[in-house]
Amino acid sequence: MDYRLGELRVVTVHAFLALLGGLLVLAFVAEGAFNRLRIPPVLVLMACGFLLGPVFKLLPVAAFLEVAPHFGALAFLLILFEGGLDLHLPEVIHRFSSGARLASFGFVMSAFFAAGVGLAFGWPLASAVLFGLVVAPISGAVVLPLAPRLGLPQGLATVVVLEGALADVFGVLGVSVALQFFTGGGLAGLLALGSLAAAVFSVLLALGVGLVWPHALRALRERSYLDVLTFGVALALWGVVETLGASGALAVLAFGLTLANEREILGLLKLSEEGVLELEADVTSSLHRFIGQLTFLVRTFFFVFLGVVVQLHKANWAWFAAALVTMALFVLGRGGILGRFARTGALPMEKADFRTVWMLQPRGLVNAVLAMQATHKLGGLDLLPAVSIIIVVSNLLVVFGLRGRPLANSA
Description:
The protein is mainly alpha-helical. Helix content is 77%, strand content 2%.
């Protein structure tokens, strides 16, 4: 039996199941070989998708174009939720200022550099600005799981995790404002202020849901599948917040942080902590296992889909040149920002830590998703996904090509 999309033959059922199984095995092997070979699993999966799609034409690009953005959003949600569960509130409060400054300075600088490169290569203003905003944020999807494995001091690791999470939010908000402006929405300044208010609303709503939800879990603690139910709440929270025009990404991150730090938050709010200790560890550890496995599954398919749908074989020399110039400016600019922070004492660190954080500026999931969204909502941006993916690949090769600091075995 074949699935069909119009006149397009997609794949037989047995071939589809064999393909899914093969991709999961490949992802597992790539994850296991990462420490030894230093080849990012993301690149292996994208290369596999590129071979299956554009090269050998075993998978249909048109059908996958419909699915990839949805998988991207789901993978993004899962990674942010898992990142929130990993955050320790006292460290977040103590390091939030440093993380926010690093994220904001880095985002603005990167967006400015990338947009300038686009204009220098003769791109229209809308294309250049959106290119800058799409590739500016470092990828929290890469940073959040990687930071604990780099051997950085706890405080510095918290700073880079916060930077990755906030950079994703800046990217989503920035692209939303730009698309609203270029599609005739106007009043971008007022919209930006509205986005800031929406971000605050997202955090407050997630905080409220995160404090109420454990009470429901305690009432249902004898039931099965509470992990799935909690994940369903995270999905619903994202959907509701996005429908209201706020930041689903920030809401899910704050929801995960609230669940993992309920006792500390209740203490800050002078509320009763009764029953928290006995449930907190069980809920957090169980959610970690479930979300981690689900993230692995969804992320695997998304990056394969990305390799299928991004037509890198159609890129011309100017696209590659623009991507490489942009990446070089990112590296130089981040070095300057970190150097200033270190000299002024805003972010003190050892020399080895400086080198690690300097190169820890990967682009990945959020950039790919934003590129697809921008292309879908504003026509004439066919170059955007391809150039963005070239930057993603180049950045990942730089980040994971470093051999100066061995990775820990724990994920």
